[in-house]
Design the sequence.
């Protein structure tokens, strides 16, 4: 691939800690190779900041840098994970930007995801939603032979597609209501589509939705921004399925 | 100190069963009073935490990420092995055991590996019960594929995201135990020392990475499930945060380090594109099922790959290893790629790459698809189009990732790949019960040395992580804790905790007070270069001696000139990284020392002095058929302890894939 270098102006959200008010700071980066990932460009900037010794380096979450751990979480030019469709921040490469461009970088913004520092937010609310019911209650050693439960390939494929959610929170960041419906529906769908998930199907959806509300995520108004920005392209069909599951479970629980 | 691997007596295939039948048990009422600390939440840590929580122990689990679900097991792509023999192709527990020992170049312990093969089938059952969506056939049953170093299809998978699905399964089991109150979870926490009381591991000192504060945690036993140390090379397929710190602190507290030089260099990774490179990305070994690896027959051939005709291509793996072809084990495939590139046949701008080509597979699948649909007289374009669809279903996410990183379309042009550091077979030495040489301190998964010898076969890391956590430690830990039921929880104002915390605190202060001129990152890069150049895919005595001297000098420079911005009591990733790099520097020296000591070639460890005329690795069973268990004595000072490897069930032979 043709490789060139570009210069950029970055406007980055800086916030020392949860109680700090925070503000944008402007930085210039020069000679950025278009082969770099967006996070490698941040590495270059941070090395620059450390060398200058004026500002502290910018804190950002990142780990696997191959688009699967769900840790990276930058809101770039008004879009979670930036301009490329179906891509995490770590897989976004600098080919996506033009020389001389100004790029605005913010953390996920949602009441349920408080800022820890700069671009780092606290996403433990997602763990608590899973704790509320995002599992099948099967202790180690209780399982039957794996092939004793044949599963229709289409259901298995759909369950897998839902299960590929990486829990990054881009859906929440994309949503004007900061709703976590896409995240919750992906887990509910995965387990509702599989026979193993059957016994807890009704309590699961009710408990997970209740926890989601308790964490302060907003309501879903079917705008679809979550699906459009999801780096794993989790489908809105999952939200439709969650709604069906929820209705069925609510009716059943009133009996 | 003599080491005792505690391998049970009796026939190999009866050892584990007998052990389980006679091991000490802890009654449920006592379990509630026994506390276990688990560090790391990858496959080994999450599965252990969930299983021990289910048993009723009081568990505390720690990870440095913001959620246990992010541990780097999540990134494993290709699959997980199990001796299910669902394909009726001749697989068995013995075959899996044999393949693993042979794949490890006869440097793993028979009893441990056999147990691994025995429990492998249970893992698949457990995962399916949890709702892990493995790939299935149209009949609704599970699908399998092939991996390197085997001639059967025993690999279960979930597209190219098997690790993700398995980890999310273990994570959900773990979160269930958190909800039930059996497990307490500490995220964004890093273990910085093991606390020992009367020679036994009794807790840890952890640092809350958000507040920077140190914490003391008591446990009747401590489990390290902290993964491998590939990031000592700076560039590797590991996550950015993957580190050796917990294992290294344990080592300095008396846990021996087993075979530190055994590193796996994975043959199919996306090549380095420049100095800015922060990590390397793997292209799953499953791609070698269908892809063909080649270089031009002519040196320095600058034509586009699609312009090079078939007869001018060298499918060097198929040429050199006709029996296994593109599915030779990783160490063999990596060295073969290096050999071609060093000889001037490499491709791409850097010339440090070979092609992984899907053109033939796309055509083959297209024809099969046309046949299935009963289409005659299909145009070649249509066949290619249909073939691409099939390949997309099997490997779509990997192809997409390649395209994003390189900007090239792998459906149209062959992928460029080159070997990269991927996994470390070495790790903390453990006995049959997974206990280190420190009583009450265990190591599970990649963090221990035990099952893969000198080379790990593909799809076996996931198997081992889950075997250790779900099916081994729940039994073996009881054997220790049964004798601890009279030990009350110790208050953390015990002098051992105070002393350990003071030591950790002093080191952090020391790091912050250096106020030098060079960034942590710059030291890490320099360490990585020394390791890759001199302790990488090929090693020799002279280079290793140089490396040791260079690392010692680098260590001095680090401790006098590193620059860490910010302060201690805040969220400060540079400080976290500084502590990790300091530990990597010390580990690097030990790895070189081990590589120097082992004057033979085996598995991923290739000593240039020890090779056949054809350039194949030459093992020396007479002198090196042992596990090197290194004991920390003092700064840059280690004592070598040897655990002889005894093969009673396998005839040890030269490893051939020809």
Sequence:
């Amino acid at each position: 691939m043709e490789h060139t270098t570009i210069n950029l102006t970055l406007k980055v959200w800086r916030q020392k800690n949860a109680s700090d008010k925070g503000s944008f700071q402007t930085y210039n980066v020069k000679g950025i190779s278009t082969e770099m990932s967006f996070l490698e460009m941040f590495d270059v900037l941070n090395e620059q900041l450390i060398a200058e010794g004026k500002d502290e380096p910018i804190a950002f979450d990142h780990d696997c840098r191959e688009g699967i751990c769900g840790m990276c979480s930058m809101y770039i030019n008004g879009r979670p994970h930036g301009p490329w469709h179906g891509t995490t921040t770590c897989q976004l490469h600098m080919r996506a930007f033009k020389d001389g461009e100004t790029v605005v970088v913010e953390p996920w913004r949602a009441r349920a995801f408080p800022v820890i520092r700069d671009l780092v937010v606290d996403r433990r609310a997602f763990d608590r939603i899973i704790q509320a019911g995002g599992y099948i209650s099967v202790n180690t050693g209780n399982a039957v032979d794996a092939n004793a439960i044949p599963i229709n390939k289409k259901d298995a494929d759909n369950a897998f597609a839902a299960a590929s959610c990486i829990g990054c929170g881009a859906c929440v960041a994309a949503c004007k209501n900061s709703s976590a419906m896409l995240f919750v529906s992906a887990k509910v769908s995965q387990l509702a589509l599989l026979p193993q998930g059957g016994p807890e199907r009704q309590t699961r959806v009710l408990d997970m939705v209740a926890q989601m509300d308790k964490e302060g995520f907003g309501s879903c108004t079917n705008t679809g921004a979550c699906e459009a920005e999801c780096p794993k392209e989790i489908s809105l069909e999952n939200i439709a399925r969650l709604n069906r599951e929820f209705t069925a479970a609510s009716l059943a629980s009133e009996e | 100190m003599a080491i005792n691997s505690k391998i049970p007596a009796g026939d190999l295939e009866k050892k584990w069963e007998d052990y389980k039948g006679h091991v000490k048990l802890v009654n449920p009422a006592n379990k509630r009073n026994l506390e276990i600390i688990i560090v790391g939440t990858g496959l080994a840590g999450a599965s252990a935490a969930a299983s021990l929580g289910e048993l009723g122990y009081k568990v505390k689990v720690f990870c440095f990420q913001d959620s246990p679900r992010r541990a780097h097991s999540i990134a494993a792509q290709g699959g997980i092995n199990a001796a299910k023999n669902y394909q009726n192709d001749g697989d068995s527990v013995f075959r899996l055991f044999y393949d693993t020992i042979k794949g490890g170049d006869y440097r793993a312990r028979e009893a441990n590996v056999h147990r691994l093969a025995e429990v492998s089938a249970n893992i698949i059952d457990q995962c399916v019960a949890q709702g892990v969506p493995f790939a299935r056939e149209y009949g609704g049953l599970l699908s399998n594929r092939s991996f390197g170093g085997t001639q059967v299809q025993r690999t279960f998978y979930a597209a190219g995201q098997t690790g993700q699905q398995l980890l999310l399964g273990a994570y959900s089991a773990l979160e269930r135990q958190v909800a039930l109150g059996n497990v307490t979870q500490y995220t964004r926490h890093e273990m910085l020392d093991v606390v020992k009381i009367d020679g036994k591991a009794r807790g840890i000192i952890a640092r809350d990475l958000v507040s920077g504060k140190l914490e003391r945690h008591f446990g009747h036993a401590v489990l390290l499930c902290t993964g491998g140390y590939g990031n000592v090379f700076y560039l590797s397929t590991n996550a950015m945060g993957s580190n050796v710190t917990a294992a290294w602190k344990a080592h300095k507290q008396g846990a021996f380090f087993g075979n530190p030089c055994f590193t796996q260099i994975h043959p199919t990774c996306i090549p380095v594109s420049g100095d800015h490179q922060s990590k390397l990305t793997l292209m799953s070994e499953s791609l070698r099922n269908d892809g063909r690896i080649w270089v031009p027959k002519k040196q320095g051939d600058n034509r586009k790959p699609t312009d090079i005709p078939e007869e001018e291509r060298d499918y060097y793996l198929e040429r050199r290893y006709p029996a296994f072809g593109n599915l030779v084990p990783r160490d063999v495939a990596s060295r073969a790629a290096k050999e071609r590139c060093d000889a001037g046949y490499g491709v791409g701008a850097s010339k440090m790459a070979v092609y992984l080509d899907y053109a033939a597979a796309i055509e083959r699948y297209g024809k099969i698809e046309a046949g299935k649909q009963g289409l005659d007289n299909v145009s070649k374009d249509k066949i290619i189009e249909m073939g691409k669809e099939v390949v997309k279903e099997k490997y779509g996410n990997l192809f997409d990732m390649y395209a994003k990183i390189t900007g090239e379309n792998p459906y149209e042009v062959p992928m460029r790949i080159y070997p990269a550091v991927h996994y470390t077979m070495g790790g903390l030495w453990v006995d049959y019960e997974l206990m280190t040489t420190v009583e009450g301190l265990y190591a599970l998964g990649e963090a221990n040395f035990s099952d893969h010898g000198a080379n790990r076969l593909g799809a076996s890391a996931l198997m081992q992580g889950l075997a250790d956590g779900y099916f081994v430690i729940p039994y073996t830990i009881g054997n220790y804790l049964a004798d601890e039921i009279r030990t009350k929880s110790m208050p953390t104002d015990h002098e051992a905790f105070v002393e350990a915390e003071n030591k950790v605190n002093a080191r952090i202060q020391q790091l912050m007070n250096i106020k030098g001129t060079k960034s942590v990152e710059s030291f890490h890069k320099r360490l990585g270069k020394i390791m890759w150049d001199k302790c990488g895919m090929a090693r020799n005595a002279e280079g290793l001696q140089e490396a040791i001297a260079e690392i010692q000098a680098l260590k001095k420079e680090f401790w006098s000139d590193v620059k860490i911005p910010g302060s201690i009591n805040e969220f400060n990733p540079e400080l976290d990284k500084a502590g990790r790099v300091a530990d990597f520097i010390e580990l690097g020296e030990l790895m070189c020392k081990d590589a120097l000591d082992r004057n033979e070639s085996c598995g991923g460890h290739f000593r240039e002095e020890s090779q056949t005329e054809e350039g194949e690795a030459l093992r020396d069973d007479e002198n090196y058929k042992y596990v090197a268990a290194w004991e920390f004595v003092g700064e840059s000072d280690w004592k070598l302890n040897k655990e002889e490897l005894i093969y009673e069930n396998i005839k040890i032979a030269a490893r051939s894939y020809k």
Q: What stands out?
A: The radius of gyration of chain B is 24 Å. The first strand of chain B starts at residue 35 and ends at 39.
